Every structure is written in C-alpha cells, then in structure tokens.
Amino acid sequence: MPACITFPSPYSGLIGAVLPAAEEGYTQMKTVPDPSRNMDERSWWDFWNRSYRTKDNNDAVSSELFERAAAVVNEITQTDGGRVLEVACGAGGLSRLLAYSTYHGLDLSPAAVEIACEKAKDLGQLRGASRPRYEAADFHVWPLQPDPFDVVVCVDAIVCFRDQRLAMRKMAQCLRPEGRLLLTAINSFVYNRIRRTPTTRLQNGPVSHWLSRRELHELVKSAGFTIERMWTIMPRGNRGILRVINSHKLNHAFGPRCAAFLQRLKERVGLGQYHVIIARKQAR
Asked: Which CATH class name applies to 4-234+276-281?
C-alpha cells in the first residue's frame, strides 16, 4: 500500500491542462465556477484536482503530455537507474505510466495526494518495483533524502514555484552525480494563442512567473545542469498566425505522412505547447 504522508504547505500543480477544453474539438467538461481568485495556493490546487483529476484520461492535452513525458522517463530509467522523484506529481496521472524501481511523488495538494493514493491501490505492483509513495509537502522546504535519486521529473509546474531558482537547485541536490532531469513547461507564445471556450473555467492558477525559452534554459543551467536536449511538443494554437500554421485542412492536405512531418517540424522550431528539457547533473 502506498505511503501517504501529509504536511500542509503552500505550493504546486499542473498548468497546461487548466483549461482542458481550451481548443475547439476537445471533449467538453462541465462548467466549474471560478472561485480561484479568493483562494490560497493549496486550496486552489485542492479545488482544481477535485474538479479535474479524479479520473485518468480526463482531457486530451494532459493525457498526451503524460504519455510523451512517460516515454522519455522510461527510456532513461531503462539505462540510468530507476529511482524516480516527481516534483508536483498532482493526482499521480504520470506516475501510473512510469517504469521505475522506486517512485516518490510530491505535491502541495493533500487532495491530489489522496486521489493518487486511492488510485495506486487498484494498480498491480510493477515487477522489481516498490509501491509508489506520494507525499503532500512544499518542495521549497522539503528535507533532502539520504539516498539520491536517479531521475527527477517536473511536468508543467515550474512556473508556479515561488522561488524558481531555489526549486531548480533543490532538484539538482536531490539527484546523484550524472542523474537526469526531465522538465516540461508551458510555451507561453503558444499558450496565449489558444482560443478559450465561452464558458467560464479555471484560469491560470497561482503562476509565479511565466518563463521564456531563454529564461528556462538559463534557469536549468544555473542549477548545475548540462542540457542534453531541449525541444517542444504538441503543436497547438488557433489564434493569429498559429490559426494558419495549425489549420487542419492545410496540415492534412497531402495525407497523414505529410501531417506527421509537419507536426515534427513545428515541434523542432518551437511551436509546441510545451517546452521539454532533458538535462544531466554535472559530476563533482
């Protein structure tokens, strides 16, 4: 049975899926009044997770993000060790797709951790792996563990940290020398060009600072990481120039192979909704 430890504190969560029906064609979800502007961080993320994360595959955007992030992490754990720390794990949606020897997930939201623990009860245990452990804690003040991790994962949450530099340094401290970091963050150029649905939905949450590509690159390097690869995934956007670039008619005019090529091209040139970084902690 997963270990569930709750330490009340103020931070974390997922941003890119805050508007799960943000683009036309996405599955519509029930309208939720937005009381978020009157909440502290923990209460906001508790409310958000209870609203949107009680079920897996709740929306196309987060499902694809988790699947693609999991593919990267699982490739790393096959060769570089399987001790995984996920910072801002939410309700554990990504963790249920990972291959690991040990998994420790942290999130501010006790509601998210409660959901993750309940879902973990229904999963079979991976061969050679311990049960996943989820903990409600503020990563800013979370004590370092005696045994370092092989991989640290932070998906769609870095923009929420009150002190982003501190958080990034701490991710490095949690890793063994030569350990790997997988970090994803919203590409604000694309995110700001997604047409919202007319119904009122939860907005951006407690964002501390949106990071440009240059700022994200500098933030990771400043913590002692060597960036091995940086790219974008999941081209989105239907306003301005992105309305033309992402036109379904244009992208599929010459068949599925051409559409797949154009998607890869857009990801390489930075038109995906998410930045993705794989970085390695420098050896001492």
From this structure: alpha beta
**Within 10 Å of residue 198's Cβ, how many Cβ atoms?**
7
DSSP string, 2-62: --EEE---S-----TTSSTT-STTSPP-------GGGS-HHHHHHHHHHHH-SSSS-SHHH
Phi, psi angle pair for 44, to nearest 5°:
-60, -45
> Distance between CA atoms of 2 and 146, rounded to whole angstroms?
20
Judge whether 190 and 210 are in contact, CB under 8 Å: no
Q: Where are the domains positioned within the chain?
A: 4-234+276-281
DSSP-assigned letters across all residues of 112-151: HHHHHHHHHHTSPPPTT-PPPEEEE--TTTPPPPSS-EEE
150-184 burial code (b ≥16 CB/10 A, e <16): bbbbbbbbbbbbeebeebbebbbebbbeebbbbbb
Structure tokens at 26: 């996405």
CA distance 210 to 159: 6
Q: How confident is the model at residue 138 (pLDDT cuts 50, 70, 90)?
A: very high
pLDDT digits (tens, 9 = 90+) for 190-208: 998 988 765 545 455 677 7
Residue 228 token pair:
């091995």
Nearest to 172 by CA among 223, 106, 103: 223
| Total-model pTM | 0.83
Q: Dig out the tokens for 272 from the structure.
A: 């995906």
C-alpha to C-alpha distance for 260 and 256, rounded to whole angstroms: 6
Q: What is the rounded distance in angstroms from the CA atom of residue 201 to the CA atom of residue 218? A: 33
